[in-house]
Structure to design on (635 residues):
């Protein structure tokens, strides 16, 4: 195989074809003819479409979809020649380190463009053609694996086995080539291309600096040097790299994490993976560069229970795109070297999106022995997937959701347990559509404040509530908590304490409240409601961004307020409720549940799952009574 680093052949694969592709086409009467469609093209232009078009390429079945794979031999050629390939079958165990795995975005399904595979024409997406055009070598073949061609996408019997093997395919590759290209940009002088080239130049220099620091035994801190300042100052560089669609695709997370090494390529540019990672890992202060950190967090995700581990991956890849919405689940099964197979989810592309999501939720609950997956359930209608049972997360939705409460405000597993560590008791009825749990009612929702949106936290939660709700109702909701502020503080940070304990947390809370007085004065300058709204969306947001650092250490502890609403219960508990909570909804504690949940009674005797709740005073089992538990049928 051709080694892209050293420019030489590094070995041949077993059963590797040696014949050249043919453009022969057999007619119905058995005659062999050449059939070519030709266009006039400039000798200097990139070949954007094959001139030669023949009969369609036909796949042959794999001997074993779980152990056999197809590899693509990209034949050498210039940028002005047709793309020709040879596709052949080999055993995965015989191909270790003998191919490169391509990670890229499929792009739009239409239009397509033809290439030649084993002498037949195969239609592929424009982005894939651009990748092949730029990855092809002049005088040496290149061995690649990528799902669009190496898996027969029309064979629903083959796909599940290949999908289950994808993690091992990327682990067995010599390297993973990350293609960030855009099929519609082919001119070197295009501004986006110049920005991307500049970005890669800067990142490579950062990586080289980091490697040199490490070699000299120094602390690797490239973010403190002049090169990092250059990256911070040039938003075009940041946009060119981190707004690329590759960061939003679901499959790419698995592909880059399980690979041993990674190339990042964009129009004639190849960048060594190790230097990229070394240089950018320390640059976590930039919002866009946090996308890199999220990938690293995924790689570090590991728990004792494979179902909890799978849930962690699903949470961290929730906002990534998928052409096929079933791949929101199937696309993460290759993490952890096959460990996730123990959850029992088998890719089945004959199942509907709703069936795949429901099966995943069922398996996660069964194998994990907890209800943590319920924290991802939102009652927001999405046109992309049919509404399923309320206890099944809709993974197709990319809208803002509240962070699950099974973790604390800093993302660590919550130390308290509302059901006192009781075992999970659950089963399913009505063809798996009704989840039956054991639990009991604790309280009833009586008062609600508005939903806290993303920027409400920046503006200040107390002010937003006071400004939006009439004074009497506001005092009903938070009652005496404005006197001591202790319970109010604990509710906003969902019981998450700073290292110094309650005293340090309350001090940070008071400091944060003090900064809000300036904001209140600014808002008071606009007496007219209409003008106030315009002021908030323009001048105010600019002001808050510039003074972000002045908000103190309490801001991270407000992370679970977003997309929830303050509220009160009939027994005078102060709570953070799910956004869709309504008066008379019921607060339950389920056996095996770590946090209270809000359920809504239905006429048929079942209940609808609304979401998790923080209820100050009962988060560590204070209100849980095992003897009161009965069947709770959640539809």
């Amino acid at each position: 195989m051709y080694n892209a680093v050293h420019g030489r052949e590094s070995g041949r694969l077993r059963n590797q074809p040696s014949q050249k592709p043919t453009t022969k086409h057999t007619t119905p009467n058995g005659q062999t003819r050449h059939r070519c469609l030709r266009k006039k093209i400039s000798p200097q232009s990139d070949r954007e479409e094959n001139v030669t078009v023949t009969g369609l390429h036909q796949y042959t079945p794999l001997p074993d979809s779980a152990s056999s794979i197809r590899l693509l031999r990209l034949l050498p050629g210039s940028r002005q020649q047709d793309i020709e390939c040879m596709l052949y079958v080999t055993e995965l165990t015989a191909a270790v380190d003998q191919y490169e795995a391509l990670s890229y975005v499929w792009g739009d399904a239409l239009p397509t463009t033809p290439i030649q595979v084993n002498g037949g024409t195969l239609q592929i997406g424009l982005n894939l053609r651009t990748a092949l055009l730029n990855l092809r070598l002049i005088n040496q073949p290149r061995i690649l694996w990528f799902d669009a061609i190496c898996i027969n996408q029309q064979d629903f019997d083959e796909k599940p086995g290949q999908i289950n093997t994808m993690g091992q395919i990327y682990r067995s590759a010599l390297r993973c080539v990350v293609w960030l290209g855009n099929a519609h940009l082919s001119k070197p002088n295009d501004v986006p291309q110049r920005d991307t080239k500049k970005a890669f130049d800067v990142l490579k220099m950062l990586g080289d600096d980091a490697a040199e620091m490490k070699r000299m035994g120094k602390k690797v801190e490239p973010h403190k040097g002049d090169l990092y300042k250059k990256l911070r100052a040039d938003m075009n560089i940041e946009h060119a790299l981190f707004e690329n669609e590759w960061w939003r695709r679901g499959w790419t997370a698995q592909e880059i994490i399980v690979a041993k090494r990674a190339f990042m390529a964009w129009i004639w540019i190849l960048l060594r993976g190790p230097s990229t990672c070394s240089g950018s890992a320390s640059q976590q202060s930039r919002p866009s560069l946090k996308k890199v950190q999220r990938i690293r967090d995924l790689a570090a995700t590991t728990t004792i229970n494979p179902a909890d581990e799978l849930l962690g991956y699903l949470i961290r890849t929730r906002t990534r795109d998928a052409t096929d919405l079933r791949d929101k689940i199937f696309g993460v099964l290759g993490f952890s070297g096959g460990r996730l197979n123990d959850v029992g989810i088998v890719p089945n592309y004959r199942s509907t999106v709703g069936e795949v999501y429901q099966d995943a939720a069922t398996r996660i609950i069964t194998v994990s022995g907890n209800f943590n997956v319920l924290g991802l359930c939102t009652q927001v209608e999405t046109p992309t997937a049919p509404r399923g049972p309320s206890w099944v997360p809709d993974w197709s939705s990319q809208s803002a959701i509240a962070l699950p409460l099974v973790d604390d405000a800093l993302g660590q597993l919550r130390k308290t347990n509302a059901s006192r560590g009781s075992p999970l008791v659950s089963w399913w009825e009505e063809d798996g559509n009704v989840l039956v749990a054991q639990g009991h009612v604790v309280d009833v929702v009586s008062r609600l404040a508005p939903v806290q949106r993303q920027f409400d936290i920046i503006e200040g939660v107390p002010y937003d509530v006071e400004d939006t709700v009439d004074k009497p109702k506001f005092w009903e909701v938070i009652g005496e908590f404005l006197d001591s502020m202790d319970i109010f503080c604990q509710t906003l940070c969902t019981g998450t304490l700073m290292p110094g304990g309650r005293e340090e947390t309350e001090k940070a809370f008071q400091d944060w409240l003090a900064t809000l007085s300036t904001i209140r004065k600014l808002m008071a300058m606009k007496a007219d409601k209409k003008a106030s709204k315009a002021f908030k969306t323009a001048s105010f947001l600019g002001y808050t961004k510039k003074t972000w650092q002045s908000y103190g250490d309490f801001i991270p502890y407000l992370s679970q307020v977003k997309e929830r609403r303050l509220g009160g219960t009939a027994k005078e508990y102060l709570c953070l409720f799910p956004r869709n909570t309504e008066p008379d909804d019921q607060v339950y504690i389920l056996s095996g549940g770590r946090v209270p949940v809000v359920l809504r009674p239905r006429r048929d005797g079942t209940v609808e799952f609304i979401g998790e709740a923080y209820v100050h005073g009962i988060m560590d089992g204070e209100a849980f009574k095992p003897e009161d538990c009965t069947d709770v049928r959640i539809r």
Residues 191-215 form the longest helix (25 residues).
